C-alpha cells in the first residue's frame, strides 16, 4: 500500500486540528490545545486504491522558519487552511504556498527528477496542495466570500474547498482530493 505524508498548515485558530480530528476520528473537538502538534495515521480508499496517510497537524511554529521547512520538506502533500471569518488568514495563503514551493524545490531535487516530470531545470515543481476555507457554518461572520476563494484558487492553480470541521462539510472531500493530487505527481515528491 502506498504511504503519503500530509502536512496541514495555516494560521493559528483556523481549524487545522479540528479538520484533522474530524477526518481521522469523525468528531468535532470543540477545544484543542492550540500549541499541540500531533501526528495521525489513517487508511483510506480513494478510487478503489488504498493508501495510508500520515497526517501532521502543525501548530504554532510560525516563528521557527527552519523548523517549518523541515515539515514542508517531509510532506508529500499539503492542506493550506484559512478561516472564512478572518480575512487575515486568507491573505496568508499565498505565502504558505510560496514557502511550500521553496522548501520542495531545494538543492536535492535534481534536474533528472524535473525532467521526469516534464519540467525544465529552472522550472519549479508545484507540490500537491489543496486550499480549504474553513468555518463556513459561521455564515453570519463571513469576511471572505466563496467567489474570492474561487478566484484565489484559479490564480494559484490549487484545488479549493469551503468546509466546516464543525458540521463536517467537505472535510473528507478535501483529503481525498489531496490524495488524488499526490497520485498525479507519481510520488516523486
Ligand atoms: P488550529 O489552531 O488551526 O489547529 O485551530 P483549532 O482546530 O484548534 O480551532 C480553533 C478554534 O476554532 C476552536 O475554538 C474550534 O472549536 C473552532 N473551530 C474549528 N473549526 C471550526 C468550524 O468549522 N466551525 C466553527 N464554528 N468553529 C470551528
Ligand atoms: Mg491546532
TrEMBL record:
This entry's Gene Ontology molecular function terms read:
GTP binding; GTPase activity
Please provide, in alphabetical order, the Gene Ontology terms of the cellular component aspect for this entry.
membrane
GO annotation terms (biological process): signal transduction
Keywords per UniProt: GTP-binding, Nucleotide-binding
Q: What is this protein called?
A: Uncharacterized protein
Q: Which residues of the full protein are shown?
A: 1 to 189 of 241
Amino acid at each position: 500500500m502506498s504511504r503519503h505524508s500530509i502536512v496541514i498548515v495555516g494560521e493559528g485558530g483556523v481549524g487545522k486540528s479540528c479538520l484533522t480530528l474530524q477526518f481521522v476520528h469523525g468528531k468535532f473537538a470543540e477545544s484543542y490545545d492550540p500549541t499541540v502538534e500531533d501526528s495521525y495515521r489513517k487508511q483510506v480508499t480513494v478510487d478503489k486504491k488504498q493508501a495510508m496517510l500520515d497526517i501532521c497537524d502543525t501548530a504554532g511554529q510560525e516563528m521557527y522558519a527552519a523548523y517549518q521547512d523541515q515539515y514542508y520538506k517531509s510532506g508529500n502533500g499539503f492542506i493550506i487552511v484559512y478561516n472564512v471569518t478572518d480575512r487575515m488568514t486568507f491573505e496568508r495563503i499565498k505565502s504558505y504556498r510560496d514557502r511550500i514551493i521553496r522548501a520542495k524545490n531545494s538543492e536535492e531535487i535534481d534536474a533528472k527528477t524535473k525532467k521526469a516530470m516534464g519540467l525544465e531545470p529552472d522550472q519549479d515543481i508545484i507540490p500537491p496542495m489543496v486550499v480549504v476555507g474553513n468555518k463556513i457554518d459561521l455564515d453570519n461572520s463571513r469576511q471572505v466570500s466563496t467567489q474570492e476563494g474561487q478566484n484565489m484558487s484559479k490564480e494559484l492553480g490549487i484545488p479549493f474547498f469551503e468546509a466546516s470541521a464543525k458540521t463536517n462539510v467537505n472535510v473528507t472531500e478535501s483529503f481525498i482530493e489531496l490524495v488524488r493530487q499526490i497520485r498525479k505527481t507519481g510520488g516523486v515528491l
